[in-house]
Amino acid sequence: MDAFAHIAEQRIRQAMEAGEFEQLEGAGRPLDLSDDRRVPRELRTIYRILAHAGCLPPEVELRREIRSLQDLLPTIKDEEALRAAVRDINAKITALNIVGSRSGGRTIRSEMAQLYAEKLVERLR
What we know:
The chain has six helices and no strands. It is mostly helical. The model has no long low-confidence stretch (mean pLDDT about 75). The relative contact order is 0.09.
């Protein structure tokens, strides 16, 4: 991660911890995803069809699955099940990085985001 991105990420985290994002206009309402200027031209039609069918783009679905699994981690008591869940999260992060790099979307830097089973198991004990 370059220095600028690292500083920006750090400031965003500080603002989140200070609660600066909690009272933003539109909070709690669905995002307006009709603006597709940032979607690559060759994917726009496909994404519109998927949106009308109630499906999410692969990046959004993977991010949602990752967040759901991360939220479940503290509730898992069995060490082997915890390790399996961490492996699943890592696999989804890898898939997200592949999909994101192909479509020009955001990726999650593996060394920053992927969870390490041993450290996680120790922390949750």
